[in-house]
Amino acid sequence: MSLYKSDSDNKTKLFENVIKFGPVLSILGYLSGIVYFSLLPHESLIHGTYISENALLPGLVTSDIYSTDSIFNYYHFLKDAYENNGGKGYNAELIHDIFANKLKIESYTQNFNLSNPFSNSETDGITSGTNAYAFGRAQRADGTESIVISAPIYLSGKKKKIPNLFGISQLFILADLAKTRPYWAKDLIFVATDMEHVGIQAWINSYFEAHSDSIKGENLRARGGSIQAALNLEFSDINTNKLEIKLEGPNGKLPNLDLFNTIIRICKSMQFECSLESEKSANSDFSYYHNRPPVDHVSGLINTVNMMLKQATGVPSSLNGYFLNYRIEALTISGTRTSFSSKRSQQKQNVLKTTRIVESTLRSVNNLLERFHQSFFFYLLPSSHYYISIGMYMPAFGLIFLPVLIKILSLWFEIFSNKKSTHSDRNESGLLMLDLLKCVVIKFMISFLFGIVLYLGTPFFLMFGKKFQLSPKDALMNCYLAMMANILMTPFIFRSKFSSSGNKTEAENINKLIILLFLTIFVGTISILNFSLSFFVAIFYSPIALLAIQNVQNRLAKFFKLAMMVVACPIVYFSFIYLLNQYFFENKNFFTNPGQFYVSLSEKFYNFVLFSQISQIWTYEMINLFLVPIWSALWITAFN
Amino acid sequence: MSKYRSSGFFGALFLGAFTRLFLTTNQPLRQWLQNRLEISTPLTSWNRVLEGVYLKWSLNSSSYDGDLVHEIPMMINIYHYLIQLFTNRHIIYFFILIDCLNSILVYTISYKIIQFNCIMENFNKTNGKYARLFESKEKKYDFLITEKNFKPIFWSLFAMVCYLFNPLNLACCMSQTTVLIQHFVLLIWLNFLLNGKIFMSYIFLAIHANIAVYSLVLIVPSISFIRQKKIFKRKQIKSEFNLISKHATVFVLLFACVFMFNLYLENFNTRFIDCTYLFILKVRDLVPNMGLFWYFLTEMFDHFITFFIYVFQLNAFLYSIPLTLRLKNEPLVNLLIQIGLLYVFKSYPNIGETGLFTSFLPCVAYLFPLMRNVLVFTCMLIAGMVLAPIMFYLWLGSGGGNANFYFAITLVYSVGQIFLLVDVFYACLKREFIKLNGSNVPLNTDGKPANFTLE
Questions:
Q1: Is B85 at the interface with chain A, CB within 8 A?
Q2: In CA terms, which of A572, B168, B335, B454 is 20 to 30 Å from B41?
């Protein structure tokens, strides 16, 4: 022991232990993280959902909707309008007309434009639409709070747009209630939006006077109080016997779990089938009389992963997501049809129940005394009756990322103990600086340059594509792949520059340490904002990063390492996830048809980039700005 | 002036200025930074300065109407002339200029600090103070720093680079906070002090103490430094009490002069005292920042607030004298630690202040091998800086989080800073012990090797 050393003997021993048991601990941590995560939906770890906010009191009111006559009246009226004139009569003007003249409530329309964010000419690619919105003012309240009920006029279908006739008809029924009943404590705002994702954003942005580059909406002429909650109604068909709830908002945001629980409770009390979007469950015979269905581990895990995949993209699953940007808890209720019993009486029952569920939910929210603040904002749902809270799933994430943290610790110790021995030689510090400059700074500058080019490059990529007569989607995909190829080529071009002269190991170690720290900061930061994205990054990049910085001598091992690094290229990795997603959840088998997969991928990719630009979703930008540089630095390091 | 003639110096300065000029083109970034609470605290926000100037010169009323402006009248006047000179659109170039001047001052000061430390150790060595170090078994010939093994040019350049390319300082420059001007005053004080122009240095310290009340305590380490310098010039110190009281009186008089000048500028209207000095001491504005005050004071019952404000503010003033007594042989390390401590215990800290004192760390780089928790506080500071805006967004933006999220991060940040300072302190004491007692590990009474702990 020497006084010249900084650490006491205990600490040195700890570090020696870290280096000795590190590899075992890393493997153990990683594997146990995965096992723990897959055990999360198990009976012994899972929790049943419950209503945390007492004021909600779901399902305790008597419904004021007694018959389906008026619903069918509105429905057929809208249907006639849609079927005559090729659907032109069915628009925001018609809805505004019904609100204003039949129901006699305050109603307005709003025009908006969408310009293509990547086209540089002013007039090119501008599309416009019209929203209708109406206010059912609460008779006895002071109008300081409100609830939004929105419905898109058209739903996006597989081939063509489907009119949301039943959803819009429900708006009219609820507007009638809002006008005639005295018990409303909050204004009801009814919004019928055009052009799917665009209309709702135009309306919300105008409501909060927020600025958006590509969507320009007219100023709104009236407003309600502070919006407490929003429901979005999507019904492609009036024959509905099951409700599906969509939650995921933009950039991994989720609505308060209380709102979701309320709807599930109400459906339960109405004995109507209700689940998460595309929820899988083994016990298909839905037991009305059970409070909670028994836990089903396998389908619970599948549902969790499905939800995480949807959350990880950052694209909202439906129009409710845009409300979450402004701290408004919002859900989408969409109706589906599972059985084809066309009995008239059954159909009427279902229509009545569906409308009553929406009404009952509104009246629960109407009871609220303060903003949703109880219950959970960070959760995963394995089924509609069970949840996994942040306290349960975060340890799994930590365990999966443990190898990187251990590696950082041991690298740090190596550098630090090395420094002590070279402490005597002052000339070395200058040499080390030179090495660092050569080895680390240049590497990172090049890597981040690639990231910035990708971040800013999309419009230029499309411009090049136009020169070569390529369609936008091909141009974007090809340019992106070309950039990736560029990164892959970098080590060959700069080979001599990156190899250092003097004390090589020290500079190399610092380089590795910085890369791992960057990865840790990136993953850690994203884990707070969008857990699912960071989970999918961590589960793959944690072992890959360790593999990349490992020095291997064996040629076969080196080849394997480089091959894995190519797979680790973000676009390759994420397309692989997309492929698996399509295979398992959408039942599309692309394995046999790679050409079709490429076409589908490039279309999806272009739509995703365009969509992120319009709706301000940062997944794509984050990956370009941080993950691509990290991968590029890892790739260059792996090569030396 | 030969020390300025290195290509590294000009290269770094040019690159730093260029980076800043390049960043000015990014308008949204500047807007975002100007609204960040971590940077634009009530004391440093540029928008508040504009308000003050508008109130005084356009509306002909006092700048302090409305309790929005907390700069002292002197600074408001200076900013008024600056705005007239540069116009508000181009004032950013003035800030870039000041930032570059700051970096040059950091370079000069670091150079002086290292030089002073080298000469001091050499002086003590020739006086035979370190005899036991050379008798100890395990020898390390370069343990004492000299200008050969701890090159001032290299390390002061490193300090300057740390200042110029610290993201915290870049952010401060882009958001045009007046903290840069406060740094400028502080650095001029240090520069004059190190060059032996004591009266001038006190003038600038008095100005800085008028801007931010806390820097009053910096008079204690500066007197300690002057005393050390006297010893080392072999001047007889007749009476320590005389020396201290003389310097303290001069400083207090200067402080009073600056204060009177401010009063004169305000036409003897005493309203500004409440808006500047008392505003800082009473912590009236509880808008979140990176400090420790806001959360405690918002959570607390009103009738306890006075008591806790006394306790908290005492923290900032309390450590000055004990630290100076303990580190009387290392006056410059003492200075750096005290500047750092002030920035932690301030009521309205600004992240640029952390940027300033961390950029002086290369001057004491010889202490790094003796430090214990480098990894811990580095990680804490990085986590604090990266997560602060995100936690703020989760609390007030998306609504998923709450105030505890942001508070936890500010706590991590402050504790990280304190760890850093304590580690510098620890390493300094350990080094002093080795210098005086040699590197043999002393034995405890039970015969086992003793541990070196900070108690």
A1: no
A2: B335
